[in-house]
Amino acid sequence: MAINLLTNENIWFDKYKYDNAELQYYKHLSGSIPANTPVKNTVKKCSETQENGASNILRDIARARENIQKSLAGQSAMQGADVELCSRVTTLEKENQSLHKEVEQLRLMLSKLELRISSVEKSACPTPVVCPQAQPNKPDANKPKEVDGDVDDIDLFGSSDEESAEAERIREERLRQYADKKSKKPAVIAKSSILLDVKPWDDETDMKKLEECVRTVKMDGLVWGASKLVSVGYGIKKLQIQCVVEDDKVGTDHLEEEITKFEDYVQSVDVAAFNKV
Q1: At what angle do helices 15-30 and 39-123 cross, to 10 degrees?
Q2: Is the dihedral of CA 244, 245, 247, 250 positive or negative?
Q3: Calpha distance 173→147 (Å, rounded)
Q4: Which of 23, 63, 82, 239 is positioned for an S-S bond with 198, CB 3.0–4.6 A?
């Protein structure tokens, strides 16, 4: 009965063989354990080898963690620099867009000014005026002539040649009087009021010095007027200055060239308004 019971039980009778084979396998792998080493020493050395391998693995894991932390720190610093660079690029793009809008507005203003100048020049063209005194007087045959002097001296039966000579003399006298009167009348001087926009290079430009340089421009027929500083944006201000010029003596192109000679202060000069005085 006992034998039959043992045959039915699941018992590993050859376990020592497998344990020995496993030890021999580990000894073969390590190569540091002699073949005749007892089982206890072999197990002890195997455990020490495993502990050393585990400690080496732990050290490698610690080093790997340290390297990962360093790489993550470097990546965070690079990400911070990328964020700052992106913000600067966004700011520059906004500034560029605002400058483009201002340039378009200035172009529209310039085109409007050109249209106004052309219309003003067309309307300012003098139209010929016909003076009634300049027209020759045709003698009326039915109306008697009025001549200085006594009425008795008038010859009612005079010849037609004498009448035509008298009419010619009167006409020439009136023309001479009209020419004298016109020569004594003062000639009208055409003047224009101009508003200039003088732009500096940056926000560090001395605007007082810039205005002093602009006012040093002297020309015959040029009179400087009031001025003020107008904010453009981002801390930059432009100088708006008024002046009155005589059209025959001062041209806007020549005036702009004289102002832009101050290259240390002036970036550009634009005509903001142009009106005839």
Answers
A1: 60
A2: negative
A3: 14
A4: 239
Reference 197, options 109, 101, 261, 67; nearest CA is: 109
Cα distance between residue 189 and residue 187, in whole Å: 6
164: enclosing H helix or E strand:
helix 160-184
Residue 197 CB partners (closer than 8 Å, separation 6+): 230, 238, 239, 240, 269, 270, 271, 272
Rounded CA separation 204/221 (Å) = 33
The total number of residues written for the chain in this structure: 277
Q: What is the pTM of this model?
A: 0.35
CB 124 within 8 A of CB 192: no
- Residues in CB range of 45: below 8 A, 6 or more apart: 30, 32, 33, 37
User: In this predicted model, what pLDDT tens digit does every residue of 4-50 receive, in sequence order?
Assistant: 655 666 666 677 777 888 888 877 777 655 545 554 555 555 556 55
**Tell me: the pLDDT tens digits for 214-261?**
999 988 889 999 999 999 888 889 999 999 998 888 888 888 999 998
**Could you identify the residue written with the tokens 């400087």?**
224
Report residue 274 as tokens. Answer: 């142009």
How far, CA to CA in Å, does 236 sit from each of 94, 195, 201? 16, 19, 9
